[in-house]
Amino acid sequence: MEKQSTVTRIVVRKLETETHLDAFPNRLTPMDHTLGLVDAGFEFNSAFPPVLRPHRHVDVVLSFSYSWDKDHLKILKKTQQYCAVRQLPFPNIDFSKFEGEPPREVYVFEDEENPDAPIVVHFPLVNISFKEYKAPGVKRQGKKELKAGEVDVSTASSPYVTSNLTYKTEDFQKLVDLTCYNVSNNLDSTVCALERALNRKGLAGKEK
């Protein structure tokens, strides 16, 4: 047993060493002694730019926008502008259709006229059906469960405002539960997007 434990520790240590950014700095930046890193969301608070690089040939993008903007599609508007300037394929979204509309738990955008543009499945930070359901199809019962559904992600008094850098354990768990629920409750939207991407490539229904 001790032998297996020692081997495991050696393997883990080797993996940690070989996958660490500083393990081979000369291979990452051969002409520099230091490695410069940039936040993937530096351009407009979302990590679209590295994903949309042309050689990646991305089919589906799962976008999780948890910024504090009242406009839940603002990130996508900026992404569309960014791609237009750089001639990168991105869905041609008519945002005017969503003006004055109540927020949704998920948005799916596909440009049928441009097959090179990825399908975008966009999850904003909202609390809609989670208030009444603790799991997809499972309604909350009693005061305690209803209280658990009261997760404030929209007002100035919310514990999740941008200026609040630390959360209480309870608030952290509530945020995890809410975001997990939103994804699970809209799993069909994600699966459908993946299926459409496969259809585009003529791979739907094919066995390995």
Overview of the structural elements:
This protein has helices spanning 2-19, 25-28, 48-51, 74-86, 142-148, 169-185, 187-200, and strands at residues 60-65, 107-109, 119-124, 133-135, 138-139. It is α+β, with helices and mostly antiparallel strands. It has one domain (23-200): Cytosolic phospholipase A2 catalytic domain (3-Layer(aba) Sandwich), CATH 3.40.1090. A three-stranded mixed sheet has the order 1-3-2, covered by helices on one side. Strands 4-5 form a two-stranded antiparallel sheet. Strand 4 and strand 5 (138-139) form a beta hairpin.
Helical segment tally? 7
Please give the alpha-carbon distance between the first and last residues: 39 Å
Residues in helix, % = 25-40%
User: Briefly, what CATH class?
Assistant: Alpha Beta
Stated plainly, the CATH topology is called Cytosolic phospholipase A2 catalytic domain
GO molecular function, one term: calcium ion binding
Keywords: Hydrolase, Lipid degradation, Lipid metabolism
Protein name: PLA2c domain-containing protein
Domain PLA2c: 1-208
SSE order and pairing:
Blueprint (H helix, E strand, L loop, with lengths): L1 H18 L5 H4 L19 H4 L8 E6 L8 H13 L20 E3 L9 E6 L8 E3 L2 E2 L2 H7 L20 H17 L1 H14 L8
Parallel strand pairs: 1-3
Antiparallel strand pairs: 2-3, 4-5
Short description:
The protein has 208 residues and is an alpha+beta fold. The protein has helices spanning 2-19, 25-28, 48-51, 74-86, 142-148, 169-185, 187-200, and strands at residues 60-65, 107-109, 119-124, 133-135, 138-139. It comes from Hemibagrus guttatus.
